[in-house]
Amino acid sequence: MLHTISIIRRLGLILLVLCGLVPAAAQDVYPSRPIKLVVPFAAGATSDIADLMGKDLGTFCVVENKPGAGGTIGAEYAAKADPDGYTLVLGTIASHGISTIMMSDVHYDPVKSFSPIMLVAKVPNLLVVNKDVPVSTPAEFIAYAKKKGDLNFTSAGVATTSELAGELMRMELGAPLSHVPYKSGSAAMTDVISGLIPAMIWQAAPLKPQVEAGTIKPIAALSAERISSFPNVPTLSETLLPGFDSSAWFGIFAPAGTPDAIIKRLHDSLAVAMNDEPTRERFRLALEPESIGPDEFRTLIAEDLEKWRKVLQAVQPK
């Protein structure tokens, strides 16, 4: 939970800059009243953002927390809002991906119901092993798993990108990996450190202190590119599975039908924010900053949906 709060706080920096830049970009017509930023997470994770917005911008930019149901409650609320640029949503791989696949009562389409503005961050996964596991590379890890015949790994939780990354590795590489579920990533990591579980896939940031302490070893970045905080750790994509990427992500959306001119203005404002190097450095403490525009972002969402749908169909009970 603490790591999630840390991520959302850093994303709040972008929301602050966005709201501060829009007036300069569009003083003629838009905006003429406050912009609502829907965040599909608990208020405790974003109360500091709302406080900062209130102090810096008055009532111009307002965060409205709509938590629950894997982010789908907040996303549905935003999807049904007027497409006038005054309601935006911080969407995630959950609200616009995995949750929409797993849940039967989602009343919006993660692609068709929204106008993507920008992908602002990815949260890469890292494959690690206990310090005594005799492997150092992705190829050695797969060979070791096949030799053992059944290698346990754990993750941040069931149906997270970290668990599904392991399932995708099993499917694509024929590695005999078995997921051991825990209620939290921190509890799982404790048993990896002790040696009870040999391997783990989780977000890079919370794993870094234990890597630096030498209790666990990094084997592979499970992202499209190397992780900035682990520049010497190869990706699975560059070693065994070209194109492999299990990163979670965060992006800004408007309801479908929002005028192109408003989407462009919001995108341009976000682009300025994402090109600010101090902001990018603060982001890198927990995630990888991005600045992918509407068309490429929409393609990424569609590709992710297809990828995780196949994995979930393979692992869920029939």
Topology:
Blueprint: H1 2-25, E1 35-39, H2 47-57, E2 61-65, H3 72-79, E3 87-92, H4 94-102, E4 114-123, E5 125-130, H5 138-148, E6 151-154, H6 161-173, E7 177-179, H7 185-194, E8 199-203, H8 204-213, E9 216-221, H9 236-239, E10 248-255, H10 260-274, H11 277-283, E11 288-292, H12 294-315
Parallel strand pairs: 1-2, 1-3, 6-7, 6-8
Antiparallel strand pairs: 3-10, 4-10, 4-11, 5-8, 5-9
Structural description of this entry:
It is a single chain. The protein has 318 residues and is α/β, with parallel strands linked by helices. It has 2 domains: 2-123 and 247-315, Bordetella uptake gene, domain 1 (D-Maltodextrin-Binding Protein, domain 2, 3-Layer(aba) Sandwich), CATH 3.40.190; 125-239, Periplasmic binding protein-like II (D-Maltodextrin-Binding Protein, domain 2), CATH 3.40.190.10. Helix content is 45%, strand content 20%. It has 12 helices and 11 strands. The chain has helices spanning 2-25, 47-57, 72-79, 94-102, 138-148, 161-173, 185-194, 204-213, 236-239, 260-274, 277-283, 294-315; strands at 35-39, 61-65, 87-92, 114-123, 125-130, 151-154, 177-179, 199-203, 216-221, 248-255, 288-292. The strands form 2 sheets. The protein has a 6-stranded mixed beta sheet, with helices on both faces. Strands 7-6-8-5-9 form a 5-stranded mixed beta sheet, sandwiched between helices. Helix 6 (161-173) links the parallel strand 6 and strand 7. Helix 1 (2-25) packs parallel to helix 2 and helix 3 packs across helix 4 (94-102). The protein is elongated and about 65 Å long.
